[in-house]
Q: What sequence folds into this?
């Protein structure tokens, strides 16, 4: 499976992004939503920041205090045995979890899809009680003139998915939480089918340990029901421990093509493809037996969370999938895959 | 807080209920939905069954095989160290969970609200892939002429909440999964407010360990969004580890009164009350500092899961709350509480 990575990769790295707050540093820019808007390619970048670390003995992190309406910092001593730092994304203390960084969404613009001008200020930043640990992983879907942005809102209340919309990428309207905890990886099918909208989503079922993909339907994009299990994990495969929607599905002749992520027990994140029925998208027609895209380059195999390629958006043009992807939860890469090659990986 | 238990308590016990399958035994009848229908009080009982146990060395349980469309049995040796029986409701093996019984919903009818005639066959039984471990904990809400039944659908895909409706309690129409895993304890506010329906629900957030109550809104009772956190656990209190809606809320002069359950770290389940704003039910006006109803009698303190009172339904009449409740996950009790007393427990 040929993956054509841009020679400029990674096309955006943390040093390209100014922190949004004094005394903070950007530790990751990854998992971007993608849209065409007028003559430009727009990305909504997930930018992960933390306070500049001042001592090797202490981990400094930050979160929104909703009561005060501002970002506050917190410190965790490395020597304290009650602090668990085993996952680089988390600090676990007394059965409570904190994130080691706080993410916001930042707009980037490009004429050629490779070289981006990055906004100076957040487009969407933590502002609600549901967002106090940050906003993450935007997916953009254009329906009519409106661009809908699903994003993950994280707080001590749980991992939820929220919806915002914009007409111009200048002002964004928030529509609240559309999927209750724990739910993420929400991607909309970009048109109504028989008057109903569909969303891929990834609830988590702790009792039975499942991280599977489901599909829901809606009359209005705001309220979701008729949840159906869409596809499950595959023992021993590259998507054996978790999977979730990546980019919003694209319509091809055979149905809806979804590029999704999966991880194995070593937490190696790859991309695969699944083809859904055009009229009944809760039916899986075929699915990649093997990944279509694996972490192979230096910047994919090393970073904040090593061994990850993860997409929230792509452009589909002339039988080419132009994929923007997070590399090692650190930087953004660009790669092109031929639709023909991808369809050849599908296993009915 | 005076609780007037019926002298006939428990009013329904497992020996009152015929098993639905040959070779099975009823181990629990509890957590019933409640409705008035014509001149009768109707209960939709949760009936938990299992194969008759034939050996002390083996646990026999049963589940629906959706492919075959029938209930199959499975056996787990007590001597096998890979089988974990520490929770009487579960068997955990190789990180997979099974239930020790399978539940269905059974109709019971009464003229006086105390003495019930119990149907011979299930009203709603496991029939879908989402229900293969059974259907549980129905809540009934009458809206217009239609009675809506939310119930918990359990399967290896997760713990979800499904919706059915009926006009006559003879035939039931299924409407699919309305809350994705993991979610239960779903109770509807029984009328639209400014054209929107509201549901209390209890998602589970494993990363942050929360078992809190949320509220969602809907245009049609089928699709749900605008999820808001309603009320959380209280450290050191009777509702410190989990809580969830009990009966559908009842309208009183001051707002919506919800009788909910909470559990402490000893897994002791009590009932409490919370008052929600009449027009903006996502706002909590007041909440019981102490339980209004605790497991105290022999049949509440001993049984399949000891130390539990749990309600899915009540009747509100002449300032009295007539509560049907599951006792120790084994039998059904009936108790009356005065609205005046309950309101006096509320802490603004």
A:
């Amino acid at each position: 499976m040929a993956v054509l990575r841009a020679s400029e990769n990674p096309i955006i790295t943390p040093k390209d992004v100014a922190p949004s707050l004094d005394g903070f540093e950007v530790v990751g820019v990854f998992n971007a939503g993608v849209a065409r808007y007028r003559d430009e390619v727009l990305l909504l970048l997930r930018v992960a920041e933390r306070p500049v670390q001042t001592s090797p003995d202490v981990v400094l992190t930050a979160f929104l205090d909703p009561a005060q309406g501002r970002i506050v910092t917190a410190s965790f001593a490395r020597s304290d045995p009650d602090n668990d730092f085993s996952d680089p994304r988390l600090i676990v203390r007394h059965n409570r979890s904190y994130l080691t960084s706080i993410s916001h969404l930042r707009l980037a613009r490009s004429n050629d899809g490779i070289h981006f001008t990055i906004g100076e200020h957040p487009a969407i930043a933590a502002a609600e009680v549901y967002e106090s640990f940050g906003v993450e992983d935007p997916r953009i879907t254009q329906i009519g003139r409106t661009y809908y942005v699903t994003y993950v809102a994280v707080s001590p209340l749980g991992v939820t998915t929220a919806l915002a919309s914009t007409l111009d990428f200048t002002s964004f309207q928030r529509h609240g939480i559309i999927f209750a905890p724990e739910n993420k990886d929400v991607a909309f099918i970009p048109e109504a089918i028989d008057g109903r909208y569909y969303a891929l989503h990834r609830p988590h079922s702790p009792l039975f340990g499942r991280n599977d993909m489901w599909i829901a339907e809606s009359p209005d994009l705001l309220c979701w029901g008729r949840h159906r299990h869409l596809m499950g994990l595959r023992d021993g495969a590259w998507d054996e421990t978790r999977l979730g929607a990546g980019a919003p599905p694209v319509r091809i002749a055979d149905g809806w093509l979804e590029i999704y992520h999966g991880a194995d027990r070593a937490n190696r994140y790859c991309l695969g493809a699944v083809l859904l029925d055009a009229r009944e998208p809760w039916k899986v027609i075929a699915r990649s037996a093997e990944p279509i895209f694996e972490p192979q380059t230096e910047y994919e195999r090393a970073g904040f969370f090593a061994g990850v390629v993860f997409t929230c958006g792509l452009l589909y043009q002339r039988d080419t999938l132009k994929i923007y992807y997070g590399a090692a939860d650190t930087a953004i890469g660009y790669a092109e895959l031929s639709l023909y090659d991808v369809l050849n990986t599908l296993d009915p």
Notes: The longest helix of chain B spans residues 339-344. The interface with chain A takes residues 95-97, 129-130, 156-160, 175-183, 201, 203-210, 212, 214, 216-220, 222-229, 232 of chain B (CB under 8 Å). The domain at 4-347 of chain B is CATH 2.115.10.20 (Tachylectin-2; Chain A). Chain B has one domain: 4-347.
